[in-house]
Amino acid sequence: MKATLTLEDGFTLHGESVTGPVQKGGEVIFTTAMTGYQEVLTDPSYEGQLVCMTWPLVGNYGINHEDMESAAIHAGALLVKECCRIPSNWRSEMSLPDFLNKYGTPCIEGLDTRALTRHLRMHGAMRGFISTDCCDADDLRRRAMELPAMKGNRLVPKVACRKPWAWNGTGPVEADLAGDGSHAWQGTGLPLLVYDYGIKWNILRHLKAAGFETLCVPPDFSPEAARATGARAVFLSNGPGDPATLTDEIAIVKRLCDDFPVVGICLGHQLIGHALGARTEKLKFGHHGCNHPVRDLTTGKIEISSQNHGFHVILDGVADVEATHVNLNDGTLEGLRHKNKPIMSLQYHPEAAAGPTDGNHLFRRFHRMIGQAVGAGA
């Protein structure tokens, strides 16, 4: 079935729908990851985005339940050069087309993904629309222009949890709090309250491995409720959309930073930045992929990182806050810490399941900072 993709500037490509009829729009971005398409599709941070894979053959190792980053697909569509229909891997439980159809997610193949990537690099990520019943570029461009832009788009409510839950090792289970708001911690690790803005499950796996026991809560969970749970520290998760739109969440984080040791990844990093007086700006085409070099300024070492974000934090001399990591491609901030409070955050993903593992040790750094702060009575 023929399919057409048109961007808001009129750039148009033609391909074939792998998943049947489709009418779908969203921000079109590209990821340079060679593997990890299942993690990309199920990462809530990709909510509504049309994701172009730069690697030409996608789907060859199939899908399996262990590689899910959430309970469903969140990406709006998958754009590829070639989609493999018959996977070959001992872990495979399902083909990529079957997985996409299960969740009603369109996939377009036969696209010149190299040309699309070059266009987005030159002109920036932008809205696009794909259709199987219309090939008129002007009409599709109009539909793309009617979509909300990513800047100013509040997407966290679409993916965040609505009530507390715990991680059982393979998925979420509902967690009931006592009448006084306390949580029955099991004593398996340092009690950590996780604000779920669209968390990737592998973050929870790594937090557990690093020595934390986690309880996940919604973005509007108050600081008073946080204290009542008995948690000793707070973690802020990744998530989609423009962080500057999350004014209520930022106000909560600001208060949490006064009461707890606080750590954040991705969107959590951006919210910490806002809470400490920094600002965020949209990147031209974002950082999406598994090959971004980052310098750890605390050690001088360079790590290859997995990244997925369209906005970045700008400190601009914010008092008592210093950069800990910097992106070596464009010099943008990749990590920060407070000089006087137990607060630190990372823009990239040290928990990457299908990418580099260079940053895995940072979960131990989180635990060390929080353990020292809790031991000192912070």
Task: Throw out a few tags for this protein.
378 residues; 7-stranded mixed barrel; 20 strands; 30% strand; alpha/beta; 24% helix
What does the model show?
- By secondary structure, the chain is α/β, with parallel strands linked by helices.
- It is built from ten helices and 20 strands.
- It has helices at residues 37-42, 96-102, 113-123, 137-145, 156-159, 201-209, 223-229, 247-259, 267-275, 362-375, and strands at residues 2-7, 12-17, 23-31, 50-53, 57-58, 77-79, 82-83, 107-109, 126-131, 165-167, 172-174, 190-195, 212-217, 233-236, 262-265, 279-296, 302-314, 321-327, 333-338, 343-346.
- The chain has a nine-stranded mixed sheet, with helices on both faces.
- Strand 10 (165-167) and strand 11 form a beta hairpin.
- Helix 8 packs across helix 9 (267-275).
- The radius of gyration is 21 Å and the shape is globular.
- The chain starts with a strand and ends with a helix.
- 50% of the residues are buried.
